[in-house]
Write a structure and sequence with these properties.
Length: 69
Amino acid sequence: MQVAGRTSSCRVLREGRELGTLMLQIPGRHYLADAVAALAVGLGLGLDLDQLLAGLGSFTGTARRMEAK
């Protein structure tokens, strides 16, 4: 897990096998935890891993909450 500047990332493992890297455009371990949970649900529903990673990676946060002041 790595939080650097305004991004967060982690390797994604499933049953000991690496699936890929989750890259978020928002900083914070808590956001990574939420994103990994959403990824697990999506995979459990049979959704495509690459599309899930792309969708989670494109999220830039909610309005006002992550604005630099």
